[in-house]
Amino acid sequence: MRESSEEALRQLRLQQFLGLMLPISVGFLLLYLAFALALRSVALMGGAGAVLLYTVALARSRTLATRGQAERAALLSGYALLVMVALGALFVHFLLAGLLMIPIAGVALVLPYVDPPPLARYMLAAFGVDVWVMVVDGLLPPLFEQPPLGFQRWVFALAVVACVGLTLRMLWVDAVRLRQSLARAEEAVATRDEFLSVASHELKTPLTPLSLKLQTLRREFSAPSSVPSRERSLGHLDMAQRQVKKLVELVDDLLDVSRIGAGQLELHPSRVDLSALVRDVVQRFEPEAARAGCALELESSQPVVGWVDPRRFEQVLDNLLSNALKYGSGKPVRVRLDPQGTHLRLTVRDHGIGIPAEALDRIFHRFERAVSGRHYGGLGLGLYITRRIVEESGGTVVAASEPDQGATFTVELPLGASPVPPGGD
Ligand code: ADP
């Protein structure tokens, strides 16, 4: 993940450089052309030709960079810079110092984008161009008559201003971006710390009763005088099992979140009798609903069969149902499954505490909660995982609610147009 954001930053930097360089290059081209014509100077006409080649190459590099081909874009603009300098040296002697520096600047530009062998070739070419500039401009007399001294000074001053301006602008943008990344990193660390403290609290919550029940069982069995009743022991074991189930669910959620983060949430769709699946899940939740004092109802108008990943679909319903029982305890909860043309619609409705309007979208994001951790335990991951599974399956999930009036979660999923495989039912 870090690598991809670094990659994005490199791409952005190159695009930004090309975006700034192109107008500067066009500006110099126009300046050279205008004065070449006004002064009838062959030297300036040659200089304009060199800048024209560079400008065309820059435009092409920019296209490559926007297509994500950073290496090709950087090499093209780098070599174009060398060609411009090599050509320019033949015509304009007065820029000797600048012309010597440009190939070195080109190396700095190309460096982050290019692997060692092409980089070595580029550096060799830059060195060759510098030698060429030294000989042609430094040791030999000019091939063409040079423009008047006043013009030379102006061009030199403009070139310096453009270079310094470009460098400062790049540094400024980098500094701003650095500060933004720092703020984001600090925020991420704070979120992680808060998450770690909530997660450890949540993991510990089932461990305490689990440990107590196991101690009680041990005490009852090890007391020499009394034989514990079968019912009582089974009660303790049921309770212990429920706590273990909670722990497994928490760990599964954490694993799912890291899978989603790594882009590894895999779905394995198959043809599923969804009416039967929903019925089974609702039945499985009966004891939990009874403990929460909720009457659990299932409505299913017609049989629904579709192509979904059964385990993940079950996980979606599990999450919605356990939330409905948690946040709507003591009140009825209704599950409804309907076919809607090419889609299925699953709704889970409760009559509990409801969700404030401001939180209706937010709660589908990682670690987002609309209740205080003191009143209701939870990691704020269930709905995030639910949304990702549903979206990955090509569907949608939305929440509707009024505070204190309960909440309705609606999932719509494509029933899947995949043909029934040979031998499939
Ligand atoms: P958790 O329940 O562990 O906090 P979820 O991602 O399942 O995490 O839910 C996120 C938040 O959405 C919850 O903290 C709660 O504020 C809100 N929420 C979810 N389902 C309901 C519901 N049925 N009624 C009221 N609030 C709900």
TrEMBL record:
The chain crosses the membrane at residues 12-35, 41-59, 80-113, 119-142, 154-172. One of its GO terms (molecular function) is phosphorelay sensor kinase activity. Signal peptide: none annotated. PROSITE patterns: HIS_KIN. Keywords: Kinase, Membrane, Phosphoprotein, Transferase, Transmembrane, Transmembrane helix. Residues 198-417 form the Histidine kinase domain. Its EC number is 2.7.13.3. This is histidine kinase. It comes from Hyalangium minutum.
